[in-house]
Amino acid sequence: MTTSMPAAPFTAPASEERLVRAAAALTAHGFTVEILDDAAAARARVADLIPAGAGVFTGASETLRLSGIAEDINDSGRYDAVRPRVLAMDRATRTDEIRRLTAVPDVVVSSVHAVTETGSLVIASGSGSQLPGQAGGAARAIWVVGAQKVVPDLGTALRRVEDHCLPLESARTQEAYGWPSAVNRLLVLHAEHRPGRGTVLLLREAIGF
Residues with Cβ < 8 Å from 48, sequence gap 6 or more? Predict the structure, then answer.
């Protein structure tokens, strides 16, 4: 059976029924899932979930930037924020240290490019630097996900990455760095085998790519 998509499949928020279906499937696969109203609620919840002083790495995410979560983590002084430390390092001489810091933080906070109603998370990357912590290197992972990212299945998720997310991310990287992005790495999380490790904050509103 094919689940019907909304008229604007990659930008319109999913219905409550579809959010609940995705949440149930993710829960069955070992993820902890909370459905929240909006980005403000997610921002408050992330602050509750991360203890002060924890080493936290934030993925490069429009969702985190727009919600204020990235600023809370990287600029507040409440945490041992990994991203500001990494950005200040010389990439030519401290590559190994950068790699270790981003791969095994206490907590990684990011978003995803798609979440399926069958219970999988899909994350694309150009360099792959954001993926090790999310795949299992971090002791805890938190994903903040806008309602427009819910899709019926993995095939639709991959199409969302290529047709919707990549052009938007390429425009961002072209402006910021002078070159387009690419889907060089793709992480698909079908389940979480460590109880309590992975938390998905699924929003009722659309935010991010």
Answer: none
Tell me the C-alpha distance between 147 and 77, whole Å.
Answer: 30
As to burial, measured by CB atoms within 10 angstroms (0-12 exposed, 13-18 middle, 19+ buried), residue 61 is buried
Q: Which two tokens stand for residue 100?
A: 């270790």
Contact (CB, 8 A) for 185 and 127: yes
DSSP state at residue 147: G
Task: Return d(Cα 79, Cα 59) in angstroms, integer.
Answer: 15
Cβ–Cβ contacts within 10 Å for residue 57, how many?
31
d(CA 81, CA 92): 21
Beta bridge partners of 200: 33, 143
Spatial distance between the Cα atoms of 20 and 22, rounded to a whole number of angstroms = 5
Task: In whole angstroms, give the CA distance from residue 57 to residue 80.
Answer: 9
C-alpha–C-alpha distance, residues 176 and 126, integer Å: 14
Q: What string of pLDDT tens digits covers the 209 residues of the chain?
A: 344 444 457 999 999 999 999 999 999 999 999 999 999 999 999 999 999 999 999 999 999 999 999 999 999 999 999 999 999 999 889 999 999 999 999 999 999 999 999 999 999 999 999 999 999 999 999 999 999 999 999 999 999 999 999 999 999 888 888 988 999 999 999 999 999 999 999 999 999 99
